[in-house]
Amino acid sequence: MKRGWLFWAVVMALTAGAVLVGLRLGREAAGVQGSADRRAGEGSATALPVPVRTVIARAGDLVVYEEVAGTVRPAQEVTVSARVPGRVLRVPVQVGERVRQGQVLVELETQDLEAQVRQAQAALASARTQAAQAAENRRRMEELYQAGVVSPQQLEAARAQDEVAQNAVQTASSALELAQRQLENARLTAPLSGVVTALNVDPGELVGAGVPLAAVAALDEVLVEGGVGERTASHLRPGQEVEVILDLPSRQVWRGIVSSVSPAADPVTRLFTVKVKLNNPDLRLKAGSFARLRVAVEERRGAVLIPLEAVVRRGEETYVFVVEGTTARLKPVRLGLEDGLRCEVLTWLAGGEEVVTAGQDNLRDGSAVAVVERGDAS
């Protein structure tokens, strides 16, 4: 800021000096006969150097970026649905609350399920009793058969009854396991550690099996998802590092890693979906928030660079003023890449030239100049 004020202060001082000189020469011309003295006075006024600001053109690297809109999404999000029908007893968590894996999110009333467990337990106990009796009867019938007391048909009948009884035990055991599992399913727990992102139920509501009740997202790591054009997609690879710009509320630049790039464009938007992974240990990044992906799409190494403000455009031609000693020379140039601040010069400049960046509106080829501030374009 101080350097800018200094430049304009010098400009104003030199301009004021030119005005005073002009006034003085005008008064002298009024008192002198002949046009020769007036021409001399005019020549003295135009000989004043034009104040300019310059930079030294330097070789450097130029990268052109493209920014695309994106949305922050959880790296992993799981919806929790009711596995059994029932009435909601309690919802001990809230949206936005951090939960650990296995923590209860929604609990249903369990009186009916507990009764089913008790019935299944009783049925299994009865089946086991009958199975024990059938096994003992089979053992006794085998002994009697060996003694020649019972017929083969009686032995086979005892064996069949034993097999049926054992199968009944297995069936009752499976029924008990199912009833116990249904009872456990009345308590919906977090499938992973993360943040509760949705709750679709309140205590007292009746819910059916398969109805989504809650969602939990792991937000320690998030994805920024956006759609990019073919040109940008061609510069992206999984594992590549890219910049992610977020306003939280001030502009912040994060570093992310490309997770994936879709192999085919969306048939409607003609865009390729790119996902960039970001670490989010303090949960500052919220799911659904806006972000921008900044992708390098072109790059030049060792290019001769000048500020865009140094370029003089006249129709379709581009020029720069180069200071040679105390004289400004107008040079035609051909430009290459631009990044919004600097541009690549493809012809005439080799680096090291002193290029005018301010004051060139008052210049012509061969104008005398006074450099009031020098900078560097690299």
Keywords:
single chain, 378 residues, alpha+beta, conserved putative lor/sdh protein from methanococcus maripaludis s2 fold, Elongation Factor Tu (Ef-tu), domain 3, 4-stranded antiparallel beta sheet, 5 helices
Average pLDDT over all residues: 85
Poorly predicted ranges: 1-11, 14-45
Compute the CA-based radius of gyration: 43 Å
The CATH class name of the largest domain reads Mainly Beta
Secondary-structure-based class equals alpha+beta
Overall strand count: 20
Q: Could you explain the architecture of this structure?
A:
- A six-stranded antiparallel barrel has the order 2-9-12-11-10-13. Strands 6-5-3-8 form a four-stranded antiparallel sheet.
- The protein is built from five helices and 20 strands.
- Helix 3 runs antiparallel to helix 4 (152-185).
- It has 378 residues and is α+β, with helices and mostly antiparallel strands.
- The radius of gyration is 43 Å and the shape is rod-shaped.
Topology of helices and strands:
Elements: H1 2-30, H2 35-46, E1 50-56, E2 58-81, E3 86-90, E4 98-99, E5 104-108, H3 111-146, H4 152-185, E6 187-189, E7 194-199, E8 206-207, E9 212-228, H5 230-233, E10 241-247, E11 251-261, E12 272-279, E13 290-307, E14 312-314, E15 317-324, E16 327-332, E17 335-338, E18 342-345, E19 354-358, E20 369-376
Parallel strand pairs: 1-20
Antiparallel strand pairs: 1-19, 2-9, 2-13, 3-5, 3-8, 4-7, 5-6, 7-9, 9-12, 10-11, 10-13, 11-12, 13-18, 14-15, 15-16, 17-18
